[in-house]
Structure of Abortive infection protein-like C-terminal domain-containing protein:
Amino acid sequence: MNSRARWMAIIDLYSKRQGRERNGVNDVYTYDEFSSKFRIQLSMMIEELLGGIEDVYRGGKPRDAYEGLVKILRKEYGLSHLVSAARSFTPDYFSEIHDFLSVEVDVEKVLDAVELAYQLGNRFARHSSYRLAYMDDSDDHVDACIEELNGRFKEAGYGYAFVEDNILRVDSEFLHSEVVKPAIHFLNFEGFEAARNEFLGGYDHYRHKRYKEALADAGKSFESTMKIICGLNGWTFKPTDGANKLIQVLVDKEFLPSIHQAHLSGIHTVLSAGIPTLRNKWGSHGDGDTISEVHPDVVAYGLHLTASAIVLLGSLQENHPNAIEDKTKI
């Protein structure tokens, strides 16, 4: 770890250790409110990623990044300024975004700003010319910034993470590490772009409480994954085939393991009854005379079931004779 990266590490202070001894480790995430302490940490982390006030005053790319960040949010929200105090003849984009992080009540809008800032960091701050201070290790610097952000979310007990250029809602650290991230890994294979976008779209809908859309995108990503696998292996299917027919193709082609019939039947039942049933019951049909409520826990189950199925399918394809080469950076 170089001296600069050391400052971005999360230090296990004495007071933190004592707090854990007294209160235990908090494994229940919250989502709807950020503390003042955490908001200050967000500002500090974004400064480390995009540049501090000195970098902005020098002009160049850090100033452009802050200007882009503020102008995008202004346009999306339909506001002339993100905070009322920002009204002046000389725009101060740096102060405006950091004031916004400090005072904005809506956590989802704060996350909008964080997500966009880190997307800009991924796009621009990885270039050696972005800031002279990090010209020799710009990639490592951005990676360290992202790692710290996710560590701070976890440390504060907030159920969010920045993964693959998106803020995702995290319901369980175990599920996130063992199911969601491996699913994204497989969807990063070349040719799986459509399924990946649908999968991440489902989690984005979930974070914004668009629960029916989340289930619909989960179902689409599940079906797209199977269609892509069928295409890679030269197996015939119709573009209009749904999940059940696609699963049957995989079973007929002995793509799914058949060493133990009971295990195969169990997998087949979960794949054919789990995700499609959730999607068909709540996500893809009209409400009729009444507006149906979709409980968040049901949606979380559907998303995690989708991720588990993709991990299974991806693992099988990775070990198949027609396996695709992983060209991604993990």
User: Anything to note?
Assistant: The chain has 14 helices and two strands.
